[in-house]
Amino acid sequence: MEENKFQFVELKESAAEHIAAPHYSYWKSVFRRFFSSKVAIVMLIIASIIILMSIIQPMFSGYVPGQNPNINDQSMKYLAPSLEHFFGTDNYGNDLFDATWLGTRTSLFIAFAATFITTVIGVIVGAFWGYSKKMDKFMLELYNIVANVPFTLVVMVLMYVLGRGVSQLIFALSCTSWLSVAYFIRVQVLIIRDREYNLASRCLGTPTYKVVIHNILPYLVSVIVTSIARDVPNYISYEVFLSFLGVGLGSSNQSLGRMIQNYSNDLTAVPYLFWIPVAVSAIISVSLYVIGQTMADASDPRTHML
User: Fold this and answer.
1) Which residues of 66-88 are buried (b: 16+ CB within 10 A; e: fewer)?
2) What distance, in Å, lies between the first and last C-alpha atoms of the chain?
3) What is the pLDDT of residues 136-182, one digit of tens each?
4) Which of helix, strand or coil describes residue 298?
5) Any idea what the Cα angle at residue 231 is, between residues 227 and 236, rounded to 5°?
6) Cβ atoms of residues 252 and 246 within 8 Å
7) Is residue 193 part of a domain?
8) Number of domains in the chain
9) What sign does the CA torsion over 44, 45, 47, 52 have?
10) What is the pTM of this model?
């Protein structure tokens, strides 16, 4: 009777090595934290609608800046917003709804392109800048020189030299701004450069580029996202500001900045012409900033500690 109370269990090495801790996925945790913010979800929906409208609507509107078949039709000028013309029409009979989404597409393209260029160059240079003591001396001198020159002045001078256009503005915005991103990354790299695992990698003869890519950059995800969240709205603001001053895009290009400049004289008589592109610019800037900051907080490894 006593023998029936016991049962031999087969020994399994795989079961002995089983880890009792729950499965952890970094990016799954990031997105779970991001979507836990109701404000971020609302801003994501708003930004997605604006971006989709700026991509899709100009494809069907057929609107081309400077080419308006209604220019001689007096009945089409200065029409107030209605169901037929959602944002109204301007002094040339242009449908402001079509013009706004085309301008939004141009402004977003400039902002995303400039952010992509400055982020890629800045992260790569900044990572090696912070890790290499020899490179640090030269780059610090270069940064001190460039940082003392006002960024807006540099962009304006480059635009006068290169001419007005989308590619010229992207180049002017990213020409020196990557250096600020690189310096920002350099400071973060200095914080973790001499940690034990990096010292051990160097003692084992690991090449510098592998230490940077595998040991340092993965810890800077939240820092890079923070930089992107700051730069995209900033470049939209710069495009609007420069085009408003008349040194951004030319008359053949449509952007939110160009619209604000063109309709600034109508601020009193026909205020909707001015305030609609201003409102779209403000909404997209705020929504992208909130999305970026929430994603930066969610991707910070320190927020994932149990």
Assistant:
1) eebeeeeeeebebbeeeeebebb
2) 48
3) 888 888 888 888 888 888 888 888 888 888 888 899 888 888 888 88
4) helix
5) 165
6) no
7) yes
8) 1
9) positive
10) 0.80
Burial (Cβ within 10 Å: 0-12, 13-18, ≥19) of residue 16: exposed
Backbone dihedral region of 78: left (phi > 0), alpha (psi from -120 to 50 degrees) or beta? left
Mean pLDDT of the 255-279 span: 83
Please indicate, yes or no, if residue 1 is contained in any of the structural domains.
no
- Give the residue numbers spanning the domain of 160: 26-58+87-304
Reported as half-sphere exposure (CB side, CA atoms, 13 A), residue 109 has a value of: 17
What residues does 128 pair with on adjacent strands?
none
- Give the separation between CA 287 and CA 37, rounded to whole angstroms: 13
- Domain assignment of residue 249, yes or no: yes
Report pLDDT for 269: 80
**Plot region of 88 (φ>0 → left; ψ -120 to 50 → alpha; else → beta):** left
Query: How far is the C-alpha of 156 from the C-alpha of 136, rounded, in Å?
Result: 29
